[in-house]
Design brief:
With 262 residues, the protein is of the alpha/beta class. The protein has one domain: Purple Acid Phosphatase, chain A, domain 2, CATH 3.60.21. It is globular, with a radius of gyration of 17 Å. The mean pLDDT is 95.
Length: 262
């Protein structure tokens, strides 16, 4: 089976629908979202409704936790905290209750190749720490080994990354850029941490990025899709939401480095 792994939708149903359409075209029979369904964007209810209707398996992200009050707004920077506070007034009680029941992590022990899903880390997922460096990854691998986890899928940083750990204790780090869309055989390393990037809030990479994992071959690929900046700006204005400062820079970057047919 092919699993589409997405993260950091951040209240952007346009991007979510584009990713789901692409995942369907690639034969994905299962969708897992690593959290941050809400926050930042213009339509939190729209994104939650899609996740519920499509029966997407969702993990709790820090913005989701902040919205339902299980994470203090003091954890966030002022821009993120303002967005979460704004969306608390918009999200329906039914959708809030659904968010409250999302798990911090999930594990899949099928086919003798154990995988796990978390928004930030596996060690202390409720703290929402970031895996941003080789040192951060090195801290996670012992917990993965003790739990029998071969691959950990994460989001949170909005950077598509790959860390591969080998029996000689070496760790390979790969930052996924526009020209790096190719398969990785995750069975060739002792363990791996895969950051799938951001679906709906490309503050660090100017595209919608998610991943596809094949449970039969253990191959993984980052899918890199165009992000509709014009739609995002228009919808943010309609919602009377503050447009992020990074939008002009990322929009210009996307225009200069276009994505061809894939």
């Amino acid at each position: 089976m092919r699993i589409a792994v997405i993260s950091d939708i951040h209240s952007n149903p346009t991007a979510l629908k584009a990713v789901l359409k692409d995942a369907e075209s690639k034969g994905c029979g299962r969708i897992v979202c690593l959290g941050d369904i809400v926050g930042y964007g213009y339509d939190p209810n729209g994104c939650i409704d899609i996740c519920r209707e499509k029966k997407i398996e969702c993990i709790l992200g820090n913005h989701d936790a902040g919205l339902v009050g299980s994470l203090s707004l003091g954890w966030f920077n002022s821009f993120a905290a303002d967005a979460v506070a704004r969306q608390r007034e918009k999200v329906t009680e039914g959708n809030k209750e659904w968010l409250r029941h999302l798990p911090y992590t999930a594990k899949d022990k099928s086919r003798q190749f154990e995988i796990a899903f978390s928004h930030g880390t596996l060690t202390v997922p409720e703290r929402f720490d970031y895996i941003q460096t080789v040192s951060d990854a090195a801290f996670e691998f012992p917990r993965m080994h003790s739990d029998g986890i071969r691959v950990l899928f994460v989001g949170h940083t909005h950077y598509a990354m790959l860390y591969k750990h080998y029996v000689n204790m070496c760790i390979d780090e790969a930052y996924i850029d526009l020209d790096d869309e190719h398969d990785y055989d995750l069975s060739l390393c002792d363990a791996a941490i895969v950051n799938v990037g951001s679906c709906g809030y490309p503050r660090n990479q100017a595209y919608s990025i998610y991943g596809i994992y094949d449970t039969d071959t253990h191959l993984f690929i980052h899918r890199i899709l165009p992000f509709d900046f014009d739609d995002y700006i228009e919808k943010m204005k309609e919602a009377n939401a503050e447009i992020p400062y990074w939008i002009p820079t990322r929009k210009k970057e996307a225009e200069e480095r276009t994505i061809g047919f894939r």
